């Protein structure tokens, strides 16, 4: 990964994360059944509070990812959460992909303890600490954004996502995005934003199952750069959190240190 690409990734995270969402890459879990765009007013784009709906469901999986592409190289950060409130268990995984991928970790919470496994340079080590709360709030907060910013989204039609029917909304307004400033890409030269698209998939309960956005730009020398932000909720009510296969090793290391 070039230094410039790493800068794009880090600075874009600071500016964009949690702002507003965009167009995902093709997802094998969705199937469009109605391609006709229908104008939607603000009341049509109605998104309910995820924390209430997910607490009622009892369990879910949330996956957040953030990717930057420049000079043919893509760097991606992924944060995934499996949460079972009924059993008071959760596991969070954090990973990076790309030429300069760094430390990865998993945190498993159960029975009043949090067990974290860190891996870097093919070496793993563990940390154990008291913790009662699951990763529920972190998982929900990862997908926080201002849906009011895209209340002019257009209803495209119905799809199937993770086995449930969802309504697909899309929003694309270049002038709206440009007020944030193309310089937020963080590249060494100026970047002209050429496309900004949001996609939101909402189920019948009002839960946003997927929110994603893509931002594309072009540098002064004609190079295309892009950023993609994606947040998905799956396994609602059916997610289980088993013990990770490294749990015994973490306990043994912790016992040996005491």
From TrEMBL:
Name of the protein: Lipoprotein
PROSITE patterns in alphabetical order: PROKAR_LIPOPROTEIN (PS51257)
Source organism superkingdom: Archaea
InterPro entries cross-referenced by the UniProt entry: DUF7537 (IPR055959)
UniProt region (Disordered), positions on chain: 237-258
Pfam families: DUF7537
Species of the source: Haloarcula terrestris
């Amino acid at each position: 990964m070039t230094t410039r690409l790493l800068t794009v990734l880090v600075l874009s995270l600071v500016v964009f994360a949690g702002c507003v969402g965009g167009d995902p890459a093709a997802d094998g879990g969705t199937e469009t059944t109605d391609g006709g765009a229908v104008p939607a007013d603000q009341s049509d784009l109605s998104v309910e509070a995820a924390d209430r709906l997910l607490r009622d469901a009892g369990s879910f999986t949330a996956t957040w990812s953030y990717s930057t592409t420049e000079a043919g190289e893509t760097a991606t950060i992924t944060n995934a959460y499996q949460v079972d409130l009924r059993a008071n268990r959760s596991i969070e995984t954090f990973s990076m992909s790309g030429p300069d991928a760094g430390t990865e970790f998993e945190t498993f919470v159960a029975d009043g303890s949090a067990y974290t496994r860190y891996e870097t340079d093919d070496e793993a080590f563990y940390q154990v600490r008291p913790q009662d709360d699951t990763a529920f709030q972190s998982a929900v907060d990862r997908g926080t954004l201002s849906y009011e910013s895209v209340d002019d989204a257009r209803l495209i039609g119905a799809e199937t996502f993770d086995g449930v029917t969802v309504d697909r909304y899309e929003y694309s307004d270049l002038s709206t995005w440009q007020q944030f400033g193309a310089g937020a890409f963080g590249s060494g030269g100026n970047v002209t934003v050429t496309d900004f698209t949001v996609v939101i998939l909402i189920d019948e309960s009002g839960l946003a199952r997927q929110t994603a956005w893509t931002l594309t730009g072009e540098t002064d020398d004609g190079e295309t750069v892009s950023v993609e932000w994606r947040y998905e909720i799956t396994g609602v009510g059916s997610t289980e959190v088993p013990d990770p296969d490294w749990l015994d090793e973490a306990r043994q290391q912790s016992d040996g240190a005491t």
